[in-house]
Amino acid sequence: MTRKHSARLGKYRIPLPGSAILRITIGVLLVLGGCLGFLPVLGFWMAPLGLVVLSIDLPFARRWRRRAEVWWGNRRQARRRHKSRHNKKRGRE
């Protein structure tokens, strides 16, 4: 039985093909399309999505994605703490 692969972006799951070669091809094309984001049809959003797709099969992309996830989680946590402290000082809680 083959494993179902998908990319998770926030609360959304995007199904991906079972073939590693096809996933890598899609990921590379998305990254290249993201580099051409100034063109009308393509967008800069394609580059990070391509790295997420590549992170399923390529260790260097997986490490990059994991670092980005940890950084983003720490950033969100710090902003929430700062916001709650700010609201306590102003008596809004």
Number of helices: 3
Fraction of residues in helix: 55-70%
Order of strands across the biggest sheet?
A: 1-2
Query: How would you describe the shape?
Result: elongated
Number of domains: 1
What keyword list fits this structure?
93 residues, 60% helix, mainly alpha, elongated, two-stranded antiparallel sheet
Task: Please sum up the structure shown.
The protein is mainly α and 93 residues long. It has helices spanning 20-35, 46-54, 59-89; strands at residues 5-9, 12-16. Strands 1-2 form a two-stranded antiparallel ribbon.
What does this structure look like?
This protein is mostly helical. The chain has one domain (5-89). The chain is 60% helix and 11% strand. It contains 3 helices and 2 strands, in the order ββααα. It has helices at residues 20-35, 46-54, 59-89, and strands at 5-9, 12-16. The chain has a two-stranded antiparallel sheet with strand order 1-2. α1 (20-35) packs antiparallel against α2 (46-54). The longest helix has 31 residues, at 59-89. It is elongated. The model has no long low-confidence stretch (mean pLDDT 84).
Layout of SSEs?
Blueprint: E1 5-9, E2 12-16, H1 20-35, H2 46-54, H3 59-89
Antiparallel strand pairs: 1-2
Helix pairs in contact: 1-2
